[in-house]
From TrEMBL:
GO terms for molecular function: beta-galactosidase activity. It comes from Actinomadura fibrosa. Pfam families: BetaGal_ABD2, BetaGal_dom2, BetaGal_dom3, Glyco_hydro_35. Residues 1-29 form the signal peptide. This is beta-galactosidase. The keyword Glycoprotein applies. Belongs to the glycosyl hydrolase 35 family. Residues 377-552 form the Beta-galactosidase domain. Residues 648-660 have a biased composition (Polar residues). Keywords: Glycoprotein, Glycosidase, Hydrolase, Signal. PANTHER family: BETA-GALACTOSIDASE RELATED.
Length: 937
């Protein structure tokens, strides 16, 4: 990159982004012919049409937000945080209820999702697996695959037929949204952490299929977890073009958020000498395996961790491709969860909460993301000499752009884990001169300092503050620098002659000599300095704290301060138009010469500030009271438990063989999947003739972690037992899962008289296939064996649900008869309350609730469970959609009801199926608001 080109680099960046990515206005515009782009890469970075990009992507799972209307909300939030891309898994199991059947409509309309990323100008790394892991049921492998003989994730012919079917459906959708065709897909990820048990022909074939389906962007792979996981797919058969690495340096013990770096230093390895270093998944949250609650996971992976690890990673590895896992986690609604690690919420402690709220982590992402997507020379750097530190406890490390000389200096504690307060003086040789500058790390911290940077029309020689971003408006450069509250900062700018310096607010000392304008200050609040003359165009320098920096938004090249979120901004003919969220009343300031300000379609009176900006005041949201849940009606079900129940239409469970590697001790095979019942509850009824000698019934069922099964004999409840689980992904296969012994009450089994055993088994979801051994994934669900010789019948989900897909509806009597659906009006239900005691078994409650949330407010609603008593669980249905399962004694009490599923301005059918293992009382059930903002209509 030549020097003259660099001079215009920052301004040009915005222009270029606009050329490549101009987002259409929010209102539907006439479709324009899409521009096609060329993607190339070398050892430094990806390039689009010859211009280098640092890919700064956040992971998003559309399948964990069953509300396409809200995809835009989350993607706009991701974009506003400074991400220029998203990493998207595509979940085979979510789209395919059975072999040959695929659905890409409604909440599964991924073409709509990719139209949105095209429109928002977010680069996409498309990750269709076929295996994705992601703590989804089966790791994304459809449950029907459990009945297909042959090892999954290999070139076994049966599996090959199956995954080719998936790729033939998903690849063409992805292909038509590639950047090369005017869309947003910049890369395609083959498989997922494919190591341990590998088959190069399979890796090769996924890529051959992709190419045949029109994929022409670079193909990537995400290697787990360290060098012991081989191969890396960097060379040899099955190699991809850009091999990447997954890294979770904090591990997942959210109960101990202060224990740092359990899994290492978190520096991304370069796997190929010819491709950029790629942090395909970099930890941005955690699963909550030990049920600490996601707030603790957010702490474990909070701003201090992000500063130290993300910044170290950028400078130490020189990686220019990142996928932060997760930007937004979402919800394991229905039966989406893989049971070993997660529950209904997949909040993940991510920067954007499950209820779409923005957190302190979001602010930190913004601080780093704005830097990364502003400073173009970062896309091509080599290791370079670092400034010398006079304190061994303060470590420095640097990279520089070989063309521009721009330096990026990492300053961190030598001991990454320390909380100490350390100061040092750096002797720093920059392209503009040598400077001795003080730095300080107050607690867990790391900084990236810039030197030798042409910042719009300015020359930044060196600074010990960090750059948030800079823009050029009305012939003036505006730059935001920030640092820790109370810590001193120095910024040196170069001028041909002494410029005029005016401190508009705050306390800043200016001195000039040898072409250097040196500004010294302590970071506190927001200081403003105007610099004019000196042979350069004017500069407005804003010097803030971390918190002040987080109040800025850079949207479509416009710098704004204030509001809770700027979704989009436009400047035209002296009018600034913002689409913004407002959590409270406050000032909004636009850093441009503006006569008129429109926020969410309304005029906001503005005045011109001494900084030459336009400032106005916006109102916050109206308080909204959510209605109480009243008018419940209830009924008790489980007729299946009664001996006289007609089960003649149920499927006989009489198979003698199974594709599962875990064989039952004796026939028949009772596994639910073998009878095509893959999700939720299944019922078994076994008829047998007792000898009279039975004193107990012994059963064995496998439900996945956290599941239970319940047993009735001749209509009498015998009790429940914990279903089996695969305790740990690395543990040997559990061959004696979920044993239960149920004593037979005296007189209940007269010899020779036909008896009926009824068993309700919950399926908590399917194991993943993390280690590609096919054994965990094919672990059965349902009854394994019974001590009585019975003729069994089985019944699960009654029919495919074309709207909600395969994972929403299970096989409870009420589910089979549509009691969860808004369209059904069951008769004969009596006035009831979920808080009244429920006997062992299944009891349903329904009510309707009318909401009246103003259409310019976003109020994420949750269903909240108070304390209750006894062992029970509750399936939550909203307008027919299974939005999760409350488990008594569990960690989750609030269940997200996303708008789209919930109708914010009309009636809603709420149904609860209480499954009690003993006489139990459900605690109070209420609606609660998880936020309240004014938002664009
Ligand atoms: C990775 C995997 C992801 C997800 C993550 C943990 O190893 O690729 O799909 O499972 O771990 O949340």
């Amino acid at each position: 990159m030549g020097a003259s080109r660099l001079l215009a680099a920052a301004a040009a960046l915005l222009t270029t982004v606009a050329l490549l990515w101009t987002p259409p206005p929010p209102v539907a515009a006439a479709p324009r012919p899409a521009a096609v782009h060329k993607i190339t890469y070398d050892r430094y970075s990806l390039s689009v049409d010859g211009r280098r990009v640092v890919l700064w992507a956040g992971e998003f799972h559309y399948f964990r937000l069953p509300s396409p209307e809200l995809w835009r909300d989350v993607l706009e939030k991701i974009r506003a945080a400074g991400f220029n891309g998203v990493s998207l898994y595509f979940d085979w199991a979510y789209h395919s209820p059975r072999p040959g059947s695929y659905d890409f409509t409604g909440v599964r309309d991924v073409d709509r999702l990719l139209r949105l990323t095209d429109e928002l100008g977010l680069y996409v790394v498309a990750r269709p697996g076929p295996y994705i892991n992601a703590e989804t049921t089966g790791g994304g492998l459809p449950a029907w695959l459990k009945t297909v003989p042959g090892r999954a994730r290999s070139s076994d012919p049966n599996y090959t037929r199956a995954y080719r079917e998936w790729l033939a459906h998903i690849d063409p959708i992805i292909a038509r949204h590639q950047l090369t065709r005017g869309g947003s897909v910049i890369a395609y990820n083959a498989e997922n952490e494919y190591a341990a048990n590998t088959d190069a022909s399979y890796m090769e074939d996924i890529q051959r299929q992709a190419r045949a389906h029109g994929i022409d962007v670079p193909i990537t792979h995400n290697q787990c977890c360290d060098a012991s996981w081989t191969p890396t797919w960097a060379t040899g058969q099955g190699a991809v073009q850009i091999p990447g690495v997954d890294d979770y340096p904090q591990a997942f013990e959210c109960r101990e958020p202060d224990v740092w770096g359990t899994w290492g230093d978190g520096v991304t390895e370069r796997l190929s000498p010819d491709a950029p270093a790629y942090a395909a998944e970099y930890q941005a949250g955690a699963i909550d395996g030990n049920r600490a609650g996601y707030d603790k996971c957010r702490e474990l992976t909070g701003p201090a961790f992000m500063k130290v690890y993300y910044k170290s990673n950028l400078i130490a590895s020189g990686a220019t491709m990142f996928g932060y896992y997760m930007a937004y986690g979402g919800t394991n609604w229905g039966r989406l969860a893989q049971p070993n690690d997660v529950y209904t919420s997949y909040d993940y402690g991510a920067p954007i909460t499950e209820n779409r709220g923005l957190t302190a982590k979001y602010d930190e992402f913004k601080r780093q993301g704005y830097l990364v997507t502003t400073v173009e020379p970062l896309a091509r750097t080599d290791p370079s000499a670092a400034p010398a530190s006079d304190n061994a406890a303060v470590h420095t490390e640097a990279r520089a752009n070989p063309e521009t000389g721009t330096q990026f200096v990492l300053v961190r504690h030598a001991d990454r884990k320390t909380n100490a307060d350390e100061s040092a003086t750096l002797t720093w040789n920059t392209p503009d001169g040598t400077y001795r500058l003080p730095v300080r790390l107050k607690g867990r911290d790391a900084k990236i300092l810039l030197g030798g940077y042409t910042m719009g029309g300015q020359r930044l020689a060196a600074t010990t503050s960090e750059l948030l971003t800079h823009v050029t408006a009305d012939g003036r450069d505006i730059a935001v620098l920030y640092g820790t509250e109370g810590v001193a900062g120095t910024t040196v700018l170069r001028y041909a002659s002494r410029p005029k310096v005016k401190v508009l607010s705050g306390s800043v000392r200016a001195s000039y000599g040898n072409g250097d304008l040196r500004l010294d200050y302590a970071h506190h609040g927001l200081a403003r300095v105007e610099v004019t003359g000196g042979g350069r165009r004017p500069l407005l320098l804003l010097l803030g704290t971390d918190a002040e920096a987080a109040r800025f938004w850079r949207s479509d090249g416009v710098l704004v301060r204030g509001t809770s979120l700027v979704r989009s901004a436009a400047l035209r003919g002296g009018t600034a138009t913002l689409r913004a969220d407002l959590a409270e009343a406050g000032d909004v300031e636009v850093f441009a010469r503006v006569r008129r300000l429109r926020v969410n379609g309304e005029d906001v009176p503005v005045h011109t500030t001494p900084s030459g900006t336009a400032q106005g005041r916006v109102a916050g949201p109206k308080p909204v009271r959510l209605p109480a849940l009243t008018g419940w009606r209830g009924t008790t079900e489980a007729p299946e438990a009664q001996p006289g129940f007609d089960d003649s239409t149920w499927t006989p469970a009489d198979h003698t063989t199974t594709a599962s590697p875990i064989k039952p001790p004796r026939p028949p095979v009772l596994y639910a999947d073998d009878y095509s019942f893959h999700h939720g509850h299944v019922w078994y009824r076994g008829r047998f003739t007792p000898s009279g000698a039975e004193t107990s019934i012994k059963l064995n069922a496998i439900t996945g972690k956290g599941g239970v099964y319940q047993v009735w004999l001749n209509g009498r409840y015998l009790g429940s037992a914990a279903g089996g689980e695969q305790k740990d992904a690395d543990a040997p296969v559990n061959t004696d899962p979920g044993p239960g012994t149920f004593p037979v009450p005296a007189g209940l089994l007269p010899a020779g008289e036909p008896a009926v055993l009824s068993v309700l088994v919950e399926n908590m979801g399917h194991n993943d296939d993390w280690t590609a051994d096919d054994v965990r994934q094919k672990q059965p669900r349902g009854l394994v064996t019974a001590s009585v010789d019975a003729a069994w019948r089985i019944q699960g989900t009654a029919a495919d649900d074309p709207v909600r897909g395969p994972l929403s509806t299970g096989g409870l009597y009420g589910e089979r008869h549509g009691w969860h659906l808004a369209s059904t009006t069951p008769t004969g239900w009596a006035a009831a309350s979920p808080t009244e005691p429920t006997n062992p078994g299944v009891r349903w409650y329904r009510t309707n609730v009318r909401l009246n949330i103003p259409d310019d407010q976003d109020i994420p609603v949750v269903l909240r469970f108070g304390g209750g008593s006894g062992r029970y669980r509750v399936l939550i249905f909203v307008n027919g959609w299974n939005m999760g399962e409350y488990v008594s004694g569990g960690v989750q009490h609030d269940f997200a009801l996303p708008n789209g599923i919930l109708r914010p301005r009309s009636g809603n059918a709420l149904a609860l199926a209480v499954i009690a293992e003993e006489t139990a009382t459900v605690g109070p059930v209420t609606l609660a608001a998880a936020g309240n903002v004014r938002t664009p209509r």
